[in-house]
Amino acid sequence: MTRECDLERLPFQKKIEFTILRLSCLDFDEAQLTIQFWEDKKTILTILNNHNVFNYCLVRDYNYKMKNTLKRRIKPGIINVFFKKGEFNEGLFEELLTKHYGFELGKDNFLEIYLFYSFVTSKEITIVWLYDDRGFREYSYLL
Predict the structure, then answer these.
(1) What are the CA-CA distances from residue 6 to residues 3, 18, 131, 133 (Å)?
(2) 8 Å CB contact between 19 and 136
(3) What angle do CA 33, 11, 108 make, to 5 degrees?
(4) Cα(90)–Cα(26) distance, integer angstroms
(5) 137 has which bridge partners?
(6) Contact by Cβ (8 Å): 41, 77
(7) How many domains does the chain have?
(8) Total-model pTM
């Protein structure tokens, strides 16, 4: 099943609230947040640490010294963050969504990041791709 959530007409704060509400409704035994970033990794790691999130893996660093080259778009940094049942971190998600949606809207204190969530139960896998401030797609697969 695929679900498209169109947030284009919502005010900025409502986009964040709606997305967090939808994410918090998804059941999971294990979850993973994949952050693609075009920023200094210290910025992302500081956000994770500020929200007491330490179960993550740096897959690839972003070489921000090459920021103005074509490679900037081809190879972002990647961090995978892992959660267990009951560890939905609303504060972390709110901060990341604010910075993600803020980039698209030209807000202050934004980050150039893409966010992908995967939620896994014994019966289903749900993947949520937050593509920009206009909305997100949700893909669910029965196991």
Answers:
(1) 10, 11, 11, 9
(2) yes
(3) 70
(4) 13
(5) 4, 129
(6) yes
(7) 1
(8) 0.89
- pLDDT tens for each residue of the chain, 143 residues long: 999 999 999 999 999 999 999 999 999 999 999 999 998 999 999 999 999 999 999 999 987 665 565 554 568 999 999 999 999 999 999 999 999 988 766 777 789 899 999 999 999 999 999 988 889 999 999 99
Rounded CA-CA distance 84/53 in Å is 12
User: What does the alpha-carbon distance between residue 121 and residue 119 come to, in Å, rounded to a whole number?
Assistant: 7
- Length, in residues, of the chain: 143
Q: Residue 114 sits in which domain range?
A: 2-142
Residue at token pair 């807000």? 107
Closest CA to 56 of 97, 29, 89: 89
Beta strands in 2-123 (DSSP E): 2-6, 30-37, 56-60, 77-84, 113-120
Backbone angles phi, psi at 46, to 5 degrees: -65, -45
